[in-house]
Amino acid sequence: MKRRVPALHAGEVHVWALPVDAFERDHALLAPEEQARAARFRFDADRALYIAGRAGARRLIGAYADLDAAAVRFVAGEHGKPTLEGSASSLHFNWSHSGELALFAISPAAEVGVDVERTARFADIDAIAERVFSERELSDYHAQEGDARRLAFFNAWTRKEAFIKATGEGMTRALKGFDVALLPADRVCVRAIEGSAAAAACWSLHALEPRAGYAAAVAVAAAGVELRVMGW
Q: How far apart are the C-alpha atoms of 205 and 223, rounded to whole Å?
């Protein structure tokens, strides 16, 4: 049975923030190879996250594409980003999950990427920042202290992850090769791509706090996009 979802208009991106346990009975929606992968997870929590991502995406994408959830099939791009298999639909979508939360983003025309992180997940954030932040990001990051520094880290991390997921390149793209704004006083944006502010101006970046203890971001390969955030 298809769920009804709001109309998705040009210039919009719909974001759904949903609890992982909303899909705990949806294991049967997964393709056989996905069910086999789910069975290989050592920890129940990791298995639940994987099932929630795949099953939740089928339910939501099916609703937007006017398909039964069980009929939705994904095909992976060159670097693993999923698209609809055998469909002329122009829908672009992405999902992420962490802790007890799953986030899904659906765009009518532009590539989209989303990332959500439970902020208690990372321990040695300074070491991670040194590896993946650009020089400008590191300068802003090190200028902060205490809780402000931790907030800056998750602002940067989720925004950078959302961006590389939107491009479809994933971790094959050098994370130091582009800059995002990470301080609370900054306008949320991609500041430069390979040093080019003009290239960055073609992107929209949005920050989210879907639940206390979580940080999230949505990146869209289009300027001036309106975000609509909703729940099940």
A: 9
The tally of domains found in the chain comes to: 2
- With the C-alpha atoms ordered 114, 104, 167, 34, is the resulting torsion angle positive or negative? positive
Q: Within a domain: residue 137? A: yes
Tell if the pTM clears 0.90, that is, is over it. yes
**Residue 227: is its pLDDT beyond 80?**
yes
| Structural domain that includes position 220 | 115-224
Q: What is the per-residue pLDDT for 158?
A: 97
Q: Has residue 76 been placed in a domain?
A: yes
Q: Is residue 231 domain-resident?
A: no
Written as one letter, the residue type at 42 is R
5 belongs to a structural domain:
no
pLDDT digits (tens, 9 = 90+) for 147-163: 999 999 999 999 999 99
Q: Closest by alpha carbon to 74, among 88, 96, 57?
A: 57
- What are the helix (H) ranges across the chain? 32-40, 44-65, 125-132, 135-142, 146-167, 197-200
Q: Mark whether 147 and 162 lie in a shared domain.
A: yes
Q: How confident is the model at residue 118 (pLDDT cuts 50, 70, 90)?
A: very high
Tell me the two tokens of residue 206. Answer: 């949005």
Q: Which CATH number fits the domain that encloses residue 183? A: 3.90.470.20
Contacts of 211 (CB under 8 A, 6+ apart): 17, 101
Looking at the structure, do residues 50 and 119 belong to the same domain, yes or no? no
Question: 1 falls in which pLDDT band (50, 70, 90)?
Answer: very low
